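Re-run with default settings, no changes from the original entry. Doing this only to confirm the output is reproducible before filing.
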Amino acid sequence: MTESQFEYLFKTHFTYLVNVANAIVKDKDEARDMAQQVFLKLWNLKDEVTVDQNIKSYLHRSVVNTSLNSIEKSKRMVSEDAVGEVVFSSQQTVGNSDYLSGEVEKAIQDAIKALPEKCQLVFSLSRYSDMSNKEIAEHLDISIKSVEKHISKALKELRISLKPYIHLIGIYLILGVGFTLL
């Protein structure tokens, strides 16, 4: 592609591409940036691209993809910022208060103790004794299906019991703060 062909394409399609991008990103300045990025990419590929009847389709698809990628990138950045804020505030909480750690640990212990006796035993053997379902079944002389049902029930009950603490448990796991259970 020659420089004059590129200039013609720019003059002919730039406004159209800005309008397409603006319909996606809803920001005229950002839409201009998207269209400029597409033309910059086209210029960098000038030796590989030929000007034909499909160039408008190529430019259209390029600006749509560039706009969608920009939106996705900004969503990731917002999401990462939100996670950073949660981790920062939780670090302050964890650093300032061992009370919350103790409270969460106690809630977990209480939730496990509230399980039916057999369910508690199966769950404890599974999670804290690292026994397989088959080993637990043989040890307790019950079927593997019973072991699976007890573990499922325990997990369901723990999810319900610990729901008020889930955000703290997640933060402690992210930060690597351990719990000593049982």
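DSSP finds eight helices and no strands in the chain. The radius of gyration is 29 Å.
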